[in-house]
Amino acid sequence: MNKQGYEYLAREVNQIEIDQRINDGYVNATALCKASGKLIADYLRLDSTKEFLTELESDVGNPISELVQVVKGGNPQLQGTWVHPYVAIT
Q1: Which residues pair with 3 in a beta bridge?
Q2: Helix (H) or strand (E) holding 6
Q3: Which of 83, 16, 18, 10 is nearest to 53 (CA)?
Q4: pLDDT, tens digit, for every residue of 15-60?
Q5: Total structural domains in the chain?
Q6: Which one of 12, 16, 24, 77 has the fewest CB atoms closer than 10 angstroms to its CB?
Q7: Which distant-in-sequence residues (6+ apart) come within 8 Å of 46 by Cβ?
Q8: CATH number for position 81
């Protein structure tokens, strides 16, 4: 599917669509957490998450602000918190 110039792969978890950007693999963590009855903000507040993001930042060479991208405004389908694939699987 194509949304504003990005190609997406749609997956479904617990009847909620989870989009993943094909070009960089980033996953809509807001939707992923919603499918599990969780909030991404709660996950990002954890000390263990902060430690993981710091290590990942060092390993992949991207700052945390790129590993966790918050999209506000514009197309509602593109809004939310998008995370690096390694963050999505933790």
Answers
A1: 6
A2: strand 6-13
A3: 83
A4: 999 999 999 999 999 999 999 999 999 999 999 999 999 999 999 9
A5: 1
A6: 12
A7: none
A8: 3.10.260
